C-alpha cells in the first residue's frame, strides 16, 4: 500500500513543488538511502560478484541483480576494471501493477518527472522512479571498494513498463561497448548498468584522446 | 473475469519490491525534516484522502453483498489488505499492508527513524488516538475516506479503528472511554478483541448510520 500511496504523493508533490522539486526530493532520498546503508569492501571482483549474486550488497535492494561476468570491462592495458550488471525486472513494475489494479492508472506526474529529468539532467529515465534508482546506484558505488578502489556506476540502458527504451550512448562509448549489444540485452533485462573502478583508464576514453 | 485469472493477476501485482517501500519511508522522512511533525501529518492525511478519492466509488444493494466484496478483496476498503469478518460489523486485517516496508527498512537501514512515531504522537493528540507510526496515519485516513465512497442500500459506510498491532509488537487500542462503544458496534467482546489481536494486525469496524 505504501508504494501506491507514494505514487499518489508524487502527483501531489509535483503539483505543489513542480516536477523539478520532485526530482530534487528523489535525489536527496537516493543519497540518503545509499549513505544509510553503509560502506562495503571486497577483495576483488570475484568476491563482489558473489556477494551480489547472494544478495549481500547494498545493490541487492533493487531485487535480483545478475552479474554478466562474460562482459568484463577492461582498461587500456587489458586489465579487468569492471563488469556489466542487469536487473531482470524494473523495481517499479510491481508498483505500477498495484496502481493499475487499485487506482486505475499511473498519475501524469510519473512521465512528467521522467521527461524533465531527461531534458535537464540525463536522457536515461523511462519513469519517475528511474530518478531515485539511478541516483541511489551512483551514490552506493561511492561507498564500495573492490581491491581498495572506489567504484563508479554508469547507467547504460533500460526498458520501461510499456516497452520504451533508453540507451545511454555516451557512457557506452566511454566503456567501448557497442550500443546494439546492450540493446539486445534489453530483451531479457529491464535495466543494464556498469560498475567500474573509479579513475580507470577506459578504452573509449583513449580512442577519444 | 475468471477467478483463476484474477488471482494470477493479483499474484503478479503483489510481488516484492523493497526498493520502493524503503524509498517511500525515506521520502516521508525528507518531507518531515522540512515541515516538522505538524506539516508532515497534514501532508499524510491529504495524501491518503487523495489516494482514496482517486479510486472508483462503490454501491451495494445489501450489507451481505458489501461484506462479500470486502472479504474477496474487491472493495476499495480491502484493496490493500486481506481481511476476514468475524461479525457483520467487525473487520480484522490479517497482516498490516505496511509491514513489508517496515521489515525491509529495518533489515537494510536499521531502526525506523523516530520522526515516524513523533508524527503519530501528533496525530494521536490532535486528530484521533489510534496511530503507532506514519503508516497508521496514511492507513486510517485512507480507510475513512474510502468508506465515504461506499454506499450500501443508499447509506454511506462509516468505519472506526479499534486496535492496531505494529510489526514490532507494539499495540494501540482505542481509548477506554471509546472502547465499549466501538466493541458494541463491532459486535465483539473485549476478550474476543484480545484473541484477534494475538495473531492479526488490525481490528476495525464498519457500519452505516
Number of domains of chain B: 1
Write the CATH fold name of chain B: Muramoyl-pentapeptide Carboxypeptidase, domain 2
Q: Describe the main β-sheet of chain A briefly.
A: 7 strands, mixed
Q: What would you call the shape of chain B?
A: globular
Helicity range of the residues of chain A?
Answer: 40-55%
How would you describe what is shown here?
The complex is a heterodimer of chains A (209) and B (209). The model of chain A has no long low-confidence stretch (mean pLDDT 90). By secondary structure, chain A is α+β, with helices and mostly antiparallel strands. Chain A has one domain. In chain A, helix 1 (2-36) runs parallel beside helix 4 (109-120) and helix 1 (2-36) packs parallel to helix 5 (129-141). Chain A contains eight helices and seven strands. In chain A, a hairpin with a 5-residue loop joins strand 2 and strand 3. The model of chain B has no long low-confidence stretch (mean pLDDT 90). Chain B has one domain: Muramoyl-pentapeptide Carboxypeptidase, domain 2 (2-Layer Sandwich). Chain B starts with a helix and ends with a strand. Classes of the chains: A alpha+beta (209), B alpha+beta (209). The A-B interface holds A 1-6, 8-9, 11-12, 25-26, 28-30, 32-33, 36-37, 58, 61-63, 89, 91-95, 97-98, 100-104, 129, 132-133, 136 and B 9-10, 12-27, 29-31, 46-48, 50-51, 54-56, 79-81, 97-98, 101, 104, 108-110, 135, 138-139, 142.
Amino acid at each position: 500500500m505504501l508504494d501506491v500511496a507514494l505514487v499518489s504523493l508524487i502527483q501531489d508533490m509535483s503539483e505543489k513543488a513542480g516536477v523539478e522539486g520532485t526530482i530534487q526530493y528523489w535525489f536527496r532520498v537516493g543519497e540518503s538511502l545509499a549513505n544509510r546503508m553503509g560502506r562495503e569492501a571486497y577483495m576483488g571482483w570475484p568476491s563482489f560478484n558473489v556477494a551480489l549474486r547472494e544478495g549481500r550488497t547494498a545493490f541487492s535492494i533493487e531485487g535480483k541483480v545478475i552479474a554478466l561476468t562474460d562482459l568484463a570491462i577492461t582498461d587500456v592495458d587489458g586489465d579487468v576494471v569492471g563488469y556489466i550488471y542487469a536487473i531482470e525486472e524494473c523495481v517499479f513494475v510491481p508498483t505500477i501493477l498495484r496502481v493499475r489494479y487499485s487506482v486505475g492508472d499511473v498519475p501524469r506526474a510519473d512521465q512528467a518527472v521522467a521527461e524533465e529529468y531527461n531534458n535537464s539532467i540525463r536522457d536515461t529515465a523511462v519513469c519517475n522512479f528511474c530518478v531515485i534508482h539511478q541516483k541511489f546506484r551512483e551514490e552506493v558505488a561511492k561507498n564500495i571498494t573492490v581491491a581498495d578502489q572506489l567504484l563508479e556506476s554508469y547507467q547504460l540502458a533500460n526498458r520501461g513498463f510499456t516497452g520504451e527504451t533508453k540507451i545511454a550512448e555516451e557512457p557506452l562509448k566511454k566503456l567501448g561497448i557497442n550500443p546494439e549489444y546492450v540493446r539486445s540485452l534489453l530483451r531479457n533485462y529491464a535495466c543494464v548498468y556498469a560498475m567500474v573502478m573509479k579513475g580507470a583508464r577506459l578504452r573509449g576514453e583513449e580512442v577519444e584522446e | 473475469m475468471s477467478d483463476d485469472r484474477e488471482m494470477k493477476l493479483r499474484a503478479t501485482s503483489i510481488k516484492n519490491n523493497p526498493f520502493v517501500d524503503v524509498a517511500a519511508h525515506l521520502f516521508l522522512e525528507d518531507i518531515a525534516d522540512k515541515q516538522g511533525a505538524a506539516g508532515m501529518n497534514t501532508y499524510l492525511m491529504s495524501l491518503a484522502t487523495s489516494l482514496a478519492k482517486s479510486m472508483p466509488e462503490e454501491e451495494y444493494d445489501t450489507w451481505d453483498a458489501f461484506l462479500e466484496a470486502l472479504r474477496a478483496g474487491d472493495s476499495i476498503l480491502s484493496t490493500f489488505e486481506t481481511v476476514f469478518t468475524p461479525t457483520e460489523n467487525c473487520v480484522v486485517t490479517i497482516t498490516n499492508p505496511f509491514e513489508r516496508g517496515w521489515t525491509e527498512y529495518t533489515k537494510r537501514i536499521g531502526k525506523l527513524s523516530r520522526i515516524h512515531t513523533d508524527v503519530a504522537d501528533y496525530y494521536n493528540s490532535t486528530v484521533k488516538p489510534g496511530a503507532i507510526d506514519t503508516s497508521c496515519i496514511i492507513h486510517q485516513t485512507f480507510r475513512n475516506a474510502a468508506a465515504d465512497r461506499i454506499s450500501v442500500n443508499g447509506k454511506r459506510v462509516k468505519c472506526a479503528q479499534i486496535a492496531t498491532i505494529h510489526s514490532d509488537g507494539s499495540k494501540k487500542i482505542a481509548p477506554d472511554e471509546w472502547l465499549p462503544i466501538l466493541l458494541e458496534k463491532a459486535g465483539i467482546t473485549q476478550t474476543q478483541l484480545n484473541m484477534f489481536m494475538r495473531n492479526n494486525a488490525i481490528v476495525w469496524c464498519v457500519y452505516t448510520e
